[in-house]
Amino acid sequence: DSRGWSYYTEEDYDLFYPGYGDSWPSFYGATGMTYEQAGGGKAGVVLEREGMEPLTLTGRVRHHLLAAMTTIETAAERRRERLADFAAFWSPATRIMPGAPAAYLVPPSRAAGDLAALLARQGIQVDTLDAAVAVSSLTPYPGVQPLADSLPSGTLLLRSDQPLGRYLAALMSPGEAPPDTSLFYDITGWALPFLYDVPAYRAARGPAVATAGWQPPRPGVPSLGADAKTVAFVWDYAAPEDVLAAARLQAVGYRVQVAERALDLEGKRRRPGTFILPVSQPDSVAGPPAELERAITSAGTRPSAVSSFHTASGVDLGSGHVRTLRTARVALVGGPAVHPASLGAARLLIERESGVDVDVIRLEDLAAAPATGPDSLDGRGREPLDLAAYSAIVLPDGPGADAYASALGHTGRERLADYIDAGGTLIGVRAGAAYLAVGESGLTEIELVEEPHATEDERRAPRAEREAGEERQRIPGTLLAAVVDTTSTLGYGFPDGAAAVMAREPVELALADGGNAWLYADLDPLAGYLPPAARERLPGTPYAVLAERGRGHVVLFADDPAFRGIMHALKKLYLNAVLLVPGS
User: What confidence category does residue 379 fall into, taking pLDDT thresholds of 50, 70 and 90?
Assistant: First the structure.
């Protein structure tokens, strides 16, 4: 005000999501606040504004500096009040969020261990039970079907009565979202048990058993029981580490296989998606079972040694339904039709976390004429782009299908068609999936669901009323249940046939003639708010489709499984598409 600089407050923003840069520190006693005058990615050095003075980068820095220094000066002037507020925040009397249970319990698993590590890194106290507790005294999370009468020793115990109890409640509780999506700036559902796909329970009273502080698992090399009779090593697919171990071994020359059918092997039922490493390997990596044992365990999984290719039931290990994986090399498409956040999330998962070879290729290169001439890559002074070198190509989310169509043009579309027909895997994420539909590129026979037409009353309504009505119908980032086809390649690693997905204005796909691997379940939201019209419209429609074309496949995701890297359980889905879909 003293400088005459205009500003506004609160409009279009909230503090509902605990992951903001101001809400997160608020849970630690800080005074969270955000000042923002960035102008977005298009502002650059100078942002031209119609009817106003240009907004320069220097001016924006000056405005931010003044706001920050004024905040510091105000805090210093009122330091006694600030320190008193900070001390009151940590008072034991205010630790437990109203309505929160006494404790949360999560049965032990690798995913539960990952969840515990995440919470512990943020200072939340995580304990484990030293004895079993009865499930009958606990309240399961929505969608959790108790599989036993008790939770075993080693179950995670998260007590609400701890210094960060309010933050724990914000992370673990599905929460009640206000029924008006126009109030939300960001996502409305994020309960961690659903993000990690772990069963969880709420306890009205703390379990009356001894507990101990959670400790990270110590790395060790399990004994596989390998000997001269060993013909193969086998491991189940339960966590991302299992499929990544297969990819790492395949990348260095080992021949890794995956079973497309269930089988009974040495007294254990194994589901589709089971990985197999035969002892017989190419000369470059061949060796005795003991060497293979070391290679497998160093890759990060826990297999078993088996002494026969014959199984008690189901397919044998030498069946045609046991296929060898392709060595993965993935291309992520980037350019003006791609949201950087979607590209970045995919690259973080596939390259940084998984160690899979990734190239980022330009849309303009994909659309360039393959021959010589001014419009070819050769004419632009760049190497030709050989799509056949990639096992999978990903079209990340972006502004819309039209942006992809404009950027790729006829040449890009035809090159992608040839790539798929020759045995490649093309993956479309949200806007990328919309581009692959019938009415857009026609690279698949999958159709988009038509948006409902406005009624006469809606068309007659004043503009502000129409816009408010449209805003209230958007899906703001809601956790929904999905039904998973565990026999589909996209369903490997999800043995329960269910998972949680994030819906953020997803592309609405019509049911395909086949390959509807993931469908939205006919259940109420697991966490967050869903408009009534969407609650009626989404159930039974696809979240993920695996379609065949020529010798290759096309994968369509209605929304982004890698969104912000927070959907821990959906890493398996994305990796299934990138690493496991068959091709030539």
Answer: low
